[in-house]
Amino acid sequence: MKKYLEVKSDELLNQGKLMIPCRIKAIRAFYELKQEEFAELLNISYNTYRNWEIGHRNPCTSAVALLTLAEQNPKMFLKKQKQFLPQKIADKNLT
Quick one: CATH architecture of 2-90? Predict the structure, then answer.
């Protein structure tokens, strides 16, 4: 089990290196959301998200996992993040 967790951790770290600003922006664009709306959906501050998208900061490992889920499995992502889905985003009928 420990070896499995180490491998998964390494995979996420490698994904984090590939989570470049244009990829983060493309994930948001897929959902047709503004930066503020996508930050709210991720349950993070707008400033944190903006810093990722302009390349001033890199997302942490857990954020990389969440962004990867948003990119690879939108239905599961929206199901997991439903509690953070503000009404104005829910009205866009993403689910």
Answer: Orthogonal Bundle (1.10)
